[in-house]
Amino acid sequence: MQTKTYVAPTKLEALLKIREEHGADAVILSERTVQKGRWLGKKPMVEIVVGIREAESDAKPTPRPAPKVEPKGIEEYDPNQARLRKLEREVQEIRALVQTMHAYIMHGEASPTQANLAAERPLIAATMDEHPLLRPLLQAGITLEMAQELLRRVPRIPHNAAVDTLRRTLVAKIPIGGVLLRESRARQVAALVGPTGVGKTTTIAKLAAIHALDYNRKVALLSLDTYRIGAIQQLRTYAELMKLPLHIAATADEVQEGLDLFADYDLVLIDTVGRGQRDEAHLREMHESLQSVRGAVYLTLSATADTATLLDAAQRFQLFEPSAIILTKLDEAARVGNCVSLALEAGLPLAYFTTGQRVPEDICHADAKTLAHRVISELAPSVASGNGVEV
Ligand SMILES: Nc1nc2c(ncn2[C@@H]2O[C@H](COP(=O)(O)OP(=O)(O)O)[C@@H](O)[C@H]2O)c(=O)[nH]1
Ligand SMILES: [Mg+2]
Questions:
Q1: Nearest alpha-carbon partner for 167 in 130, 137, 132
Q2: Which of 73, 120, 209, 227 has the fewest CB atoms lying closer than 10 Å?
Q3: What is the pTM for the complete model shown?
């Protein structure tokens, strides 16, 4: 296999160039950021090395058979993996429970040294009325009910064990899943719903770029603009750049028309244009227009919103029966306890996290460990480091 290196200011430009020159014959081997230019003119550029399959030497770019080497990109969804993860979570939950019981037994039996006692006195004082981690969790944006539920099996002392058990409980409880398949026999359809400005269109552009350019799938875009608000230029620009067909629909019939038009596509991504989530009539109309859509519905919400706003939005968009949540703007969120509360209260798995404006780099599969780790690290420093809780 021949290799070739592409350097461009953005990943999207590099992918477009590769696609234009080699179609489906190029397989991404590596990807990194390099500094190009001299002295003060140095700029970060994206460097992608591709392997070009032999068959290409005498032929034009072939339509798009699946590449032999797994292309880089977003991790694929595999039902077996999902089952495995569920089992893993259950094992973690059991392990957390065993450790909790162990900590209780140890604490009851051991006679603590004077030093230990002194260090744990504030904790012991706190146990009189509330769990020492309750307040920090509330401050992190987790609702009272959820915090109490999370702490049900978390020991109060010793502190390190408490923080550790909390971390494990979070990992076990945060539901994860529902990402798009990387390849599928049947056409996939996915709609993004959510309040205005959360990042739906940007996320659609990221998913479209990954599936069309990285995974070589046939991707089409549909924009549901019920009130013909006309905020479609952004998506149109991406569609033109990536040479993807875009259908604009304002009614249920027009949505159906678009779906018929894209019958032989691998993936149809549906963007929705909102007028603000407070407009119930608009939400109902949008919902009606999407009636014929059989596929995933992603509730898209910004991690920068507070817990009450997130829960309120989840309730308003419940009529769309979302299958999973996309959390956007995690890069801008001051704290993520709100996201944990959302996932737990809405009972929906988290599918994707988005972490910036770059298309397509700033998106990844949601991950409970990352979120749990962030929640813990965002608790008051004395709590997170295990040095005791101020009460
Ligand atoms: N910081 C940050 N900004 C984002 C992210 N996703 C989208 N945005 C920005 O949020 C703004 C609104 O995004 P847009 O896709 O138009 O939102 P929509 O109204 O839901 O379609 C734009 O300026 C995006 O660049 C993200 O993950 N992080
Ligand atoms: Mg939009």
A1: 137
A2: 227
A3: 0.79
The ligand 1 atom nearest the CA atom of 234: 16
User: In one letter, which amino acid is 215?
Assistant: Y
204 CA: nearest ligand 1 atom: 15
- Taking the CA of residue 202 as reference, the ligand 1 atom at the shortest distance is 15
How many Å apart are CA 276 and CA 21, to the nearest integer? Answer: 42
- Please name which ligand lies nearest the alpha carbon of 304: 1
Proximal ligand: closest to the CA of 205: 1
Quote the radius of gyration of the chain (alpha carbons, Å): 24
β-pairing verdict for 219-224 and 267-272: parallel
Strand order in the sheet with 324-328: 246-249, 219-224, 267-272, 188-193, 296-302, 324-328, 350-354, 363-365
DSSP codes, 138-198:
HHTT--HHHHHHHHTT--SSSHHHHHHHHHHHHHHHS-B--PPPSS-SS-EEEEEE-STTS
Cα 193 to middle of ligand 2, angstroms: 10
Distances (CA, A) of 9 to 21, 32, 44, 51: 18, 12, 7, 21
Cβ of 198 closer than 6 Å to ligand 1, yes or no, is yes
Residue 183's φ and ψ, nearest 5 degrees, are -150, 150
**C-alpha to C-alpha distance for 242 and 12, rounded to whole angstroms:** 9
Tally Cβ neighbours within 10 Å of residue 95.
13
CA dist 65 to 22, 25, 26, 55, 275, Å?
13, 8, 11, 12, 41
Ligand 1 centroid to residue 337 C-alpha, Å: 21
How many Å apart are CA 10 and CA 238, to the nearest integer? 14
